[in-house]
Amino acid sequence: MSDEVVVKLNVNGRDHKVLVEPRKLLSDVLREDLHLTGTHVGCEHGACGACTVMVDGAAVRACLLFAVQVDGSKVVTVEGVTPTDGTLNPFQQAMQDCHGLQCGFCTPGFVVSMTSYLDDNPNPTDDDLKIALSGNLCRCTGYRGIINAARTAAGLPVPANAADGSDH
Amino acid sequence: MASTISAGRYVGQAVKRLEDPRLLSGHGRYVDDVQLPGMLHVAFVRSNVARGTIVSIDTSAALALPGVRAIYTGADLNPRVGMFWHTMMGPPPELGGQTPYAPLTPLAGGDVRFVGDPIVLIIAENRYIAEDAADLVEVEIDVQQAIVGWETAIDTDQRVHPGTTTNVGQEFPLPEGPEVDALFAGAPHVFTRRFSQCRATNVPMEPRGIIVHYDQYVGDLQIWAATQSVSEWKATSSRLTGVPEHRVKVVANDVGGGFGQKMMMTRDEAAVVMAAHLFGEAPIKWTEDRRESLMAANQGREEIIDVTFAVTDEGVLLGAKVFFWEDIGAYPASAGSTAGMAGAVFPGPYKFPVVLPGGSSVYTNTVGKAAYRGPWMMETVAREQMMDHIAYELGIDPIEIRRRNVIHADDLPYTTCTTMVYESVTPSETLEQALEMLDVAAFRTMQADARAEGRLLGLGVAIYIEPSAVAFGILSSDQAIMRMDNSGKVIVAMSTGNHGQSLETTIPQIVAEHLGCNIEDVLLVQGNTESSPTGPGTGGSRSAVVAGGAAMTAALKMKDKIVQIAAHMLEASPDDMEVTAGVVSVKGTPAKALPFAMIAPIAYQMPEMLPPGMEMGLEVTARFQPAGQYTWSNATHVCTVEIDPETGMTKILRYIVSEDCGRMVNPMVVEGQIAGGVVQGIGGVLFENMIYDEDGNPLATTFLDYLIPTAPEVPDIEVGHIVTLAPGQTGFKGMGEGGAIAAPPCLANAIHDALRHLGVHPTAFPLGPSQLLTMMNEAKQA
Ligand code: FES
Ligand code: FES
């Protein structure tokens, strides 16, 4: 077993120092050591996108990184892209409005990747959005609500034939 | 289409989900999110061969690893098992039941029966150490030739379960006799086909997971689990360990999908329960990784269906024989054949004079069969493809042949030849609505124009009638335990679980509607055996019907009591009261009114102000049993595709569903369930294929090999609604599984239509690019 090392991370604006084995995955450090369990692990082999977080501004898969590799970095998780005043960010709100989630397990990955994507690409086409969504797997929704949420957040039209959430 | 039933204040409205803010912000609570003081972690050593005798297990090096706390083999855990069977399935024959079970043991005993079979369970301080230890365990196996494929399993004299006399789990023979022979001999046309679907798996995005702590001083077995049914797991764990059932506590908070896979406790989870019971010292957690999930979590769908249809020259159905072969792997949830159910619902939307079903479930050295969204759906897969095959044989349009056989409104109530009774279904109406949404004539023109350019377009249709909320055994009822607290807010506890069905929103919608309060004043408590009633949990398209029925009944009872108290205080007759937005008032005299917040404290604190003889408090329970054994919903799916002749890739151009699930609680949720099911069905035809080699090695154990649909591959799914009320007081019909039932044959029929002029007549899934190219090439050479 390898010796533990100190890793310094700024996560969601707060500085942390953790003592972990060099082989410990960033996803596990976030979930176990920092108790930020919004970052989900759906495959641990880089395919499902549930573990997506932002490291120094870029969306990455936390299951494919060791925490030591991002020593000194700024990490933003799903908890960090959520406004602190109890509201939701525009993509999160569109996800609720368009029924973009059912079990919610894939959801943090979609929220982080699309929040990051829409920040970088404010004017995507419909096809761009679908390609941007293709790195995340969802088994519940059939993507219908997720695609419509992405369209809504990007200001693109949503097909008329969809019962959206009314205000209650 | 406009519904004929007006929506209420809540029921019928696309209310935004109350559970979403926590899930969207990363504050859900799935089982792996739970960390307990002193918690230890579990890893399994699994078999890497499909069949063989265990010669030796050496755990000494693993035990010596710092951080390893205990290691158990089958010899440690299996003899401690009391009983291992599922409440929903009933006990096995040796305990007086009728359900055939595989010989279930938590860990492998003297031999291994599939790749992934759990052999050793390790408890360590963290998962990294547990997995290191797993690598240090030496298991020597005397390998034997695996039994792979149902035909092999039937032919061989070798047994998947040593010591048994057959590899058949259960068999229903096809009815035979001179009348049957005469029926088919006398028919103008008899057609026979064999349809098959490849193995697919449920793939909840959250794999299985469980935490178990046996506190020997308290005597409680506490479990947190990713399960669809906490009641089921409580009972199963009690039977396994012998801990009395009232001392077993099961909690399922958020669960990341199940689709049937998390309904019944499987061997791996049972091993964790047994290990925790033996170990005692601390809670232990097992979180399945994706490779384990794809290799060792139960799977669905591997089925072969032999169908014979007798028809007239006009394509009118005269009768059918259908035999279902199921590969159930080594350790299915139940070894029983699904043919009983599949045969009973086989007539579906058509007026079959006779249907003769049979079936056989066959053990193989592969992962066991799970219930997967519409576990009997092979009947629709076979029937709906067969309708097209017959239509083409007879030169009739597939839409027209359906019109000639489909059940119409004026046929109702209709009793099928398999004795199923439909009172309120709309197969004909959904067919017409879906076709209208498509504009068939316009598509046919486009198809002909495209074909002239060598492009391959096709149209597929599938109709089905879904036996939702199947009511037998523990599934027959559900209960709502409702209480209004001192401040007028309502808590309703149910046996249901949250793994995506939106019940945290839809149950409060029903309660608020029928009690007459605001939705934010209602909370659903579920997934906790200490507060929830005994019941079957969520699955089988049942929650809207049965749980919804219980919630509605309880709300009406609660309303009745509140109205009586208010009427007594306002010196009015209960019949003159109305309830809106949490206020009880005298009709026409809004000034004479009392809010729930004033009525509730009277019920709890001021007995002298209650009507004479009324019991104090505001607690009601209601146990609801649906009117029939099945609550039938129905839908028609229509899709159009274009197939690339160069690559064999299928692109879905349009996908349309017209459905009737009765009175909708929340149309947004209904459409979400449909879309999710349809895309799983599309995956099962175009992408997903859980294959084994001849030695029983699974060849798709990562998401790079087992492909589920992604966003660019799915069409916009268009949904039309027709609303006819279910018989009984609530009007709700279940619909959670239907999307996954009709989508496979609908898509297969569209592919068939696109390719039939080339001589391609598909009958087997998958229909991915390589399969289509192969069929096109073979047809060209023929
Ligand atoms: S868990 Fe990281 S990509 Fe799936
Ligand atoms: S909402 Fe369940 S996996 Fe996406």
Description:
The complex is a heterodimer of chains A (168) and B (782). Chain A folds into 2 domains: 5-79, Beta-grasp domain (Ubiquitin-like (UB roll)); 90-162, DNA polymerase, domain 1 (Orthogonal Bundle), CATH 1.10.150. Chain A contains 6 helices and 5 strands; from the N terminus they run E-E-H-E-E-E-H-H-H-H-H. Chain A has helices at residues 26-33, 78-81, 90-97, 107-120, 126-133, 144-154, and strands at residues 5-11, 14-20, 52-55, 58-61, 74-76. Chain A has a 5-stranded mixed sheet with strand order 2-1-5-3-4, sandwiched between helices. Chain A is elongated. With 782 residues, chain B is α+β, with helices and mostly antiparallel strands. Chain B has 20 helices and 28 strands. The mean pLDDT of chain B is 94. At the A-B interface, helix 3, helix 4, helix 5 and helix 6 of A face helix 1, helix 4, helix 18 and strand 28 of B.
- How confident overall, as mean pLDDT of chain B? 94
Radius of gyration of chain B: 28 Å
Overall CATH architecture of the largest domain in chain A? Roll
Number of domains of chain B: 3
Low-confidence stretches of chain B: none
Shape of chain B: globular
Low-confidence spans of chain A:
none
SSE diagram, text form:
The complex is a heterodimer of chains A (168) and B (782).
Chain A: E1 5-11, E2 14-20, H1 26-33, E3 52-55, E4 58-61, E5 74-76, H2 78-81, H3 90-97, H4 107-120, H5 126-133, H6 144-154
Parallel strand pairs in A: 1-5
Antiparallel strand pairs in A: 1-2, 3-4, 3-5
Helix pairs in contact in A: 3-6, 5-6
Chain B: H1 20-24, E1 40-46, E2 52-58, H2 60-64, E3 68-73, H3 74-77, E4 111-112, E5 118-124, H4 127-136, E6 138-143, H5 150-155, E7 168-172, H6 178-185, E8 189-197, E9 209-215, E10 220-225, H7 230-241, E11 248-251, H8 267-279, E12 284-287, H9 290-296, E13 303-311, E14 317-329, H10 339-345, E15 355-363, H11 378-394, H12 398-405, E16 414-415, E17 421-422, H13 427-438, H14 440-452, E18 456-468, E19 478-484, E20 490-493, H15 503-515, E21 522-525, H16 543-570, E22 577-580, E23 583-586, E24 589-595, H17 596-605, E25 619-624, E26 631-643, E27 650-660, H18 667-686, E28 717-721, H19 738-755, H20 769-781
Parallel strand pairs in B: 1-12, 10-11, 14-15, 20-21, 27-28
Antiparallel strand pairs in B: 1-5, 2-4, 2-6, 3-5, 7-15, 8-13, 9-10, 9-12, 13-14, 16-17, 18-26, 19-20, 19-25, 22-23, 23-24, 26-27
Helix pairs in contact in B: 11-12, 11-19, 15-16, 18-19
The structure holds FE2/S2 (inorganic) cluster (FES) (2 copies).
